[in-house]
Design goal:
Layout (H helix, E strand, L loop, with lengths): L2 H23 L5 H34 L12
Length: about 80
Amino acid sequence: MTKWQKNVAIALALYALMAVVIRYSSGGTGWGTALLVALVAAPLALWMGWLRRRLNEQAAEWGRRRVRPWPEERRR
């Protein structure tokens, strides 16, 4: 399975799961409303996951690139 196919499969599985959870968790929500809400919520959840991963990578990169050396690495 290519990376593109894997991403599409994850997105569709997340969409289906969200639609089912929204349909049965809130009282009286129909399938149409649940599918529409999941259509908005699934890309938002995927974007938030991507953003979190990217910020963690950048934080790790900034942690490696310090302008000043750590106190224990300085010569006296």
